Amino acid sequence: MSFGSYKTIGAAIKEFQIAYTEANFVQELDFTLSDYFREDLTLMMREGVVDNSEFAICENLIYPVLKEIWKHYRSKFLLWSHQSLNYDENLSGFPEYILARRSPLGKVVFDRPYLMLVEAKQDNFEAAWGQCIAEMIAAQRLNAELDVVIFGITSNGDRWQIGKLEQKIFTKNSTFYTIQELDKLAGALNFVFIQCEAQLERVGDRLVA
Fold it and tell me: Which end of the chain lies in a sparser environment, N or C, as judged by fewer CB atoms within 10 Å?
């Protein structure tokens, strides 16, 4: 089954036998957005065609915001777009975006995934989370021996929801964020990236030891 076969949160939770909970675990950590980024995004939202298709939403709203945060962490992570992710026949597909460890072999090599992002197509966050949870399970299993927390994001370009998978518990952040409040959104995404970075360093220390 592909990731997209999991159409609801409940279906994914039941299939993989994980617990579901909600809590406000995300903290908004200050992040300085460049003036150029603000002006360009505002221009695109005001003058451009940004939401006439799923591809347009990804390219014009989701990816630019994600990329702006990633640039500050680019020495440690790569941001992959529509990269094949395969664990087994029940967990395979092409997530919209994956934040993965930068491989010591270079940027052409896909390494351990830490964050998955799924577009909420036609504003269907239920289906998006079903797919995202399946992707997070695949990422968790690919990192199985390292026992890391996998983060997930679903977005329709305007609204952004955040979740995490820690061992056998999936937690969805109770508060969602919106591109209309860009600084809060950037702060929330910065928190997620910092958590991924901290885990990367912890895992690195363990592997060295």
Answer: C
Residue 140 lies in a domain: yes
Specify the DSSP element, H or E, that contains 192: helix 182-208
pLDDT tens, position by position, 7-66: 999 999 999 999 999 999 999 999 999 999 999 999 999 999 999 999 999 999 999 999
Count up the domains in the chain and report the number: 1
The pLDDT tens digits of the residues spanning 128-155 come to: 999 999 999 999 999 987 789 999 999 9
**Ramachandran category for residue 55: left, alpha or beta (phi over 0 → left; psi -120 to 50 → alpha):** alpha
Closest CA to 190 of 87, 112, 73: 73
Dihedrals φ, ψ of 34, to 5°?
-70, 150
Give the pairing of strands 177-178 and 159-166. Answer: antiparallel
Strand partners, 2: 92
Query: Which pLDDT does position 149 carry in this prediction?
Result: 96
- Give me the domain span that covers residue 106: 3-204
pTM: 0.94
Q: Classify residue 79: in a domain, yes or no.
A: yes
Q: Which ranges in 52-100 belong to alpha helices (H)? A: 54-57, 63-70
Comparing CA positions, the residue from 24, 137, 17 lying closest to residue 85 is 137
Q: What is the DSSP letter of 80?
A: E
* CATH classification at residue 7: 3.90.1570
DSSP bridge pairs for 119: 155
154 within a domain of the structure (yes/no): yes
